[in-house]
Design brief:
Layout: E1 3-5, E2 8-10, H1 16-21, E3 27-32, H2 37-52, E4 58-63, H3 69-75, E5 83-88, E6 91-97, H4 103-116
Parallel strand pairs: 2-4, 3-4
Antiparallel strand pairs: 1-2, 3-5, 5-6
Helix pairs in contact: 2-4
């Protein structure tokens, strides 16, 4: 079951393929955990992106501590969090690890590029 919070889909290992890989629009996936300080700093940026690009991009979060999500994180080579992946047509087209002050602009530029490329 996919839960939405302020335009952000909470996905798990069991629905990741259906929600993310089969998406008709690019998907920004955030691998995160409750105890991760930088992950909490990324969340408001993701909310802004979800609002700004509603209908053009799906923003999804995967809790690495959630049931069945460890294998998914391993599949994507997640070693530290936050780890963000921009996925288009089922393929990773860009990725970022950690948090920085320019993250909003960096993510927006990558999303604009992914949307523009048909």
């Amino acid at each position: 079951m996919v839960h939405h919070d302020k335009g952000i889909a909470e996905v798990t290992g069991s629905d990741f393929d259906q929600v993310v890989l089969a998406s008709k629009v690019p998907v920004l996936v955030d691998f995160w955990a409750e105890w991760c300080g930088p992950c909490r700093m990324v969340h408001p940026i993701l909310e802004q992106i979800a609002g700004k690009y509603e209908g053009k991009v799906l923003v999804a979060k995967v809790d690495v501590d959630g049931s069945g999500n460890h294998q998914l994180a391993k599949k994507y080579g997640v070693r530290s969090i936050p780890a963000l992946f921009l996925i288009k047509d089922g393929q990773v087209v860009d990725e970022w690890v950690g948090y920085d002050d320019n993250m909003g602009e960096t993510l927006a530029a990558a999303i604009e590029k992914a949307i523009a490329e048909k």
